[in-house]
Write a structure and sequence with these properties.
- By secondary structure, the chain is α/β, with parallel strands linked by helices.
- It has two domains: about 150 residues, Rossmann fold (3-Layer(aba) Sandwich); about 70 residues, ACT domain (Alpha-Beta Plaits), CATH 3.30.70.260.
- About 30% of the residues lie in helices and about 25% in strands.
- Strands 3-2-1-4-7-13-14 form a seven-stranded mixed beta sheet, with helices on both faces.
- The structure holds ribulose-5-phosphate.
- The site of ribulose-5-phosphate has 19 residues, from helix 2, strand 4 and helix 4.
- Ribulose-5-phosphate (5RP) binds next to helix 2, strand 4 and helix 4.
Length: about 230
């Protein structure tokens, strides 16, 4: 599920969004190799500019990286509204719909993005696509997995368990649930599918995000900004 884009493009996209952070902000930090560049760059700005910010991390990985980068941590209990959340994605379409969850962190990522006034996604341009078409990550309570699998079939998809690489058995999310990847082929109606998936009991969260404010996409010629031109 992970793209093989050069780290250089990921760095350009990640660092571009780090410039949006301002002194005093409460921010959300996504998960993955692209936003890791954002986190490191924010850490550098804290050191060089004396910025004071607080951050809610979306995973163990981003929490550790934030600590390493001297970024002060906070929680949604302390700060339920965030000024901005920045995160990576696995695929993005031209209408700013994205699929996330390649790192199995999409549940916390969706919560944090929902808490933010502005949700910025950082990708290399290889992840841009006319339509969403990669399998949709699902965080599932294992007790419900056969029912979820059936429900996905009913929606015309095929869900498979995501297996761990350096562990026998399934990938387990930071919240202790299993991850499945549901292939629907080309997704013509991301909003409709998102709504249908949200109605399946035992499916904690799916990886279709419809709330992106802007995308920073890095290519060989630089970083382009894809913004929403319709008001929501
Ligand atoms: C984690 C995610 C990541 O943001 C997504 O998988 C992109 O990762 P990377 O920047 O490493 O390609 O959704 O759950």
């Amino acid at each position: 599920m992970k793209s093989n884009a050069s780290d250089e493009l990921k760095r350009k996209a990640g660092e571009s969004a780090a410039e949006l952070v301002e002194d005093g902000m409460i921010i959300g930090l996504g998960t993955g190799s692209t936003v890791a560049h954002t986190i490191r760059r924010i850490g550098e700005r804290i050191k060089s500019e004396g910025m004071r910010i607080k951050a809610v991390p979306t995973s163990y990985q981003s929490e550790m990286l934030a600590i390493e980068s001297s970024i002060e941590l906070t929680t949604l209990q302390q700060h339920p509204r965030l000024d901005i959340a920045i995160d990576g994605a696995d695929q993005a379409d031209e209408n700013l719909n994205v699929i996330k969850g390649g790192g199995a962190a999409h549940t916390r990522e969706k919560i944090v993005s929902f808490a933010a006034r502005r949700f910025v996604v950082v990708v290399d341009e290889g992840k841009l696509s006319d339509k969403l078409s990669i399998p949709v990550p699902l965080e599932v309570i294992s007790f419900a997995s056969p029912l979820v699998e059936d429900a996905i079939k009913g929606l015309g998809g095929n869900a498979v368990l995501r297996n761990a690489i350096q562990k026998d058995g399934p990938v387990i999310s930071d919240s202790g649930n299993i991850i499945m990847d549901a292939d629907f082929g080309v997704i013509d109606d991301p909003a409709g599918l998102s709504h249908a998936l949200s109605g399946i009991p035992g499916l904690v969260e799916h990886g279709i995000f419809l709330n992106v404010s802007e995308i920073h996409a890095a290519g060989k010629k630089g970083v382009s900004l894809i913004t929403r031109n319709i008001s929501r």
